[in-house]
Amino acid sequence: QVHLVESGGGLVQAGGSVRLSCAASGRTFRNLAMGWFRQAPGKEREYVAAISWSGVNTNYGDSAKARFTISKENAENTGYLQMNSLKPEDTAVYYCAATPEYHNSRVFYTSEEDYEYWGQGTQVTVSS
Asked: How far is residue 107's CA from residue 97's CA, in Å, rounded to a whole number?
């Protein structure tokens, strides 16, 4: 079992930056591929970014490309999502997700269905 806790959300002005953290506990973080998703009011949950458990490979959804950076620090059991140049349309609850991956250190997952563990979410509000 893995317990994920997001933090770092809040209110930020358009053009600003926020770094979200996802602290994992319960099992080794090293073999966990990780992802970030978000859900805005009235909308379906949307893929944001993903990273392989080794940290070597990353992938971004269209809304995140060139502005967001996903990373993970295995020694700290923590994943991060650095968000720059924020826009009001980035306002959403951001969720981190993780899933064990024992066979391929470079694989990442972009679908919600691929993730076994989820955090409770953290609100990010971008004001114009």
From this structure: 15
Calpha distance 88→76 (Å, rounded): 31
> How many other CB atoms are there within 10 angstroms of residue 36's CB atom?
27
Q: Where are the beta strands (DSSP E) in the chain?
A: 3-7, 10-13, 18-25, 32-39, 46-51, 58-60, 68-73, 78-83, 92-100, 117-118, 122-127
- 88: how many CB neighbours lie within 10 A of its CB? 11
Residue 34's nearest CA partner among 21, 44, 43, 45 is 21
39 Cβ contact partners less than 8 Å away, ≥ 6 residues apart: 45, 46, 92, 93, 95, 121
Q: What is the mean pLDDT of residues 100-119?
A: 93
* pLDDT tens-digit series, residues 60-89: 999 999 999 999 998 888 999 999 999 999
CA Rg value for the chain:
14
